[in-house]
Write a structure and sequence with these properties.
de novo design (two linked rop proteins); alpha/beta; 2 domains; Rossmann fold; four-stranded mixed beta sheet
C-alpha cells in the first residue's frame, strides 16, 4: 500500500508493507471524517510491469544485437501464428502476405506494407457500415490493427506517422459502431488537449470507472479494444495514452504523470460517472508513471500497487486473466466487497 504524504507542500508515496490493512485506513489522518478524502479516495490497482522489471527489460533490449530482416520477419510471423502480443487478433495469412511485400528494415517500407492491408479492411468496413454494423466494426478493428502495426513500436518516420494517423481514424470509426458505444473524449491539461476514449456499461449510472493507461508501445486504442471485458464486469473504462506515446500532448518528463490527475478531474465533471468509485490499471510503464503522482488532491490519496506480471503469457491482455480474474476482483474491491 502506498500512502501520499505532504512533505514541504509536496506529496510523496510512502510504502505501507501490508496491503491488507485497507480496513484500518480510517485510523489514518488522511481518512479522518473531517478530511475531504474520506469515502472518496481511490483504490488504485495496477497490473503489468513493475518499475524494476521494466528497467531490466529495457536494458536487455538495448544490449540485444540488431536483427536482420529475415530474422525479424521470422519472429513476426511466429508471433502471428501463435496469436500473441503484439500480433494479437491479426490473421496469420494476412501477416504472411504483408511480410512478403517487405524486403528490408526500411521504416517507411514497413509502414506502407502494413497500411495496404489496413486499407483493404477499411474499405470493406465502409462498404458494410450501412447494412451490418457489427461486421463493419470488426473490419475497422482489423484495419486499426494493421495500420497500427505499421507504426509499431513507435512512429519515427513519415510513413510510420501516417500509418498511426490512419490507425487512430480506423479506431474512431470502429468506436462509433461499438455497442455499447466507445466515446472519444478530450480534456485540458497544461494548456493542451488530451484525447481519450470512454466506455460505460449499459444500465449502470453513475458507473464506476477504471483509468486504463497504455505503455510504451501499447496505446489507448489497444486498451479500448478490450473495453468489452470491463463492461461485462460492470465497470466503465477511460483509455489513456502514457505521456510521450500515442496522442499524448506531453512528453515523458518529471511531472508528466499529473496528466492522469487531469483525467480524473474530467471524470468528476460527468454525471454518468461515479466519482467515488474510480480505479486505475496500467500496462508496462503506464502503471509506473501513475505511482509517481503527487499533486495532493483527495482523489489521489491511495494507490494499491499490485505490481508485476500476473501471468503474462499467450493472449495476455486478451486472455482469461484480465476478464475472469483481474476485472471481477477489481469490481469487488471498488464496491467494498473485497480487498
Amino acid at each position: 500500500m502506498f500512502r501520499l504524504e505532504r512533505v514541504q507542500e509536496k506529496w510523496k508515496p510512502v510504502f505501507r508493507p501490508d496491503a491488507r490493512q485497507i480496513k484500518n485506513l480510517e485510523q489514518d489522518d488522511v481518512s479522518k471524517k473531517n478530511h475531504p478524502a474520506r469515502g472518496f479516495a481511490l483504490r488504485m490497482s495496477v497490473f503489468a510491469t513493475a518499475i524494476a522489471v521494466a528497467g531490466v527489460t529495457s536494458a536487455v533490449a538495448q544490449l540485444a544485437p540488431a536483427r536482420t530482416w529475415p530474422e525479424l520477419k521470422e519472429a513476426v510471423q511466429q508471433r502471428a501464428d501463435r496469436n500473441v502480443y503484439p500480433m494479437t487478433g491479426m490473421k496469420a495469412d494476412d501477416v504472411r502476405e504483408i511480410l512478403g511485400n517487405i524486403n528490408s528494415l526500411d521504416r517507411d517500407e514497413w509502414a506502407a506494407a502494413w497500411s495496404r492491408m489496413g486499407a483493404r479492411y477499411a474499405e470493406r468496413a465502409a462498404a458494410l457500415a450501412a447494412t451490418d454494423r457489427k461486421a463493419a466494426h470488426e473490419a475497422y478493428i482489423m484495419a486499426f490493427r494493421y495500420d497500427g502495426f505499421g507504426s509499431w513500436p513507435t512512429a519515427n518516420s513519415p510513413g510510420k506517422k501516417a500509418a498511426y494517423a490512419r490507425a487512430t481514424e480506423d479506431f474512431r470509426k470502429a468506436a462509433a459502431l461499438s455497442d455499447p458505444a466507445i466515446e472519444p473524449v478530450s480534456f485540458p491539461y497544461d494548456g493542451k488537449t488530451v484525447n481519450a476514449y470512454l466506455a460505460l456499461p449499459k444500465g449502470v449510472q453513475p458507473a464506476p470507472v477504471v483509468l486504463a493507461i497504455g505503455g510504451l508501445d501499447s496505446y489507448k486504442e489497444y486498451w479500448c479494444e478490450r473495453a468489452e471485458a470491463f463492461l461485462k464486469a460492470g465497470l466503465g473504462v477511460l483509455c489513456l495514452d502514457m505521456p510521450g506515446t500515442g496522442e499524448a500532448p506531453v512528453k515523458i518528463d518529471v511531472g508528466a504523470e499529473k496528466m492522469y490527475s487531469a483525467a480524473i478531474d474530467y471524470l468528476l465533471t460527468r454525471r454518468d460517472v461515479d466519482g467515488k468509485q474510480l480505479a486505475a490499471m496500467g500496462v508496462s510503464w503506464g502503471d509506473d508513471l501513475y505511482l509517481l503522482q503527487r499533486t495532493g488532491t483527495p482523489k489521489e490519496a491511495w494507490v494499491n500497487p499490485q505490481g508485476g506480471h500476473i501471468g503474462r503469457g499467450p493472449g495476455w491482455l486478451d486472455g482469461r486473466i484480465l476478464s475472469e480474474v483481474a476485472l471481477p476482483w477489481l469490481a469487488r474491491v471498488m464496491k467494498g466487497e473485497a480487498e
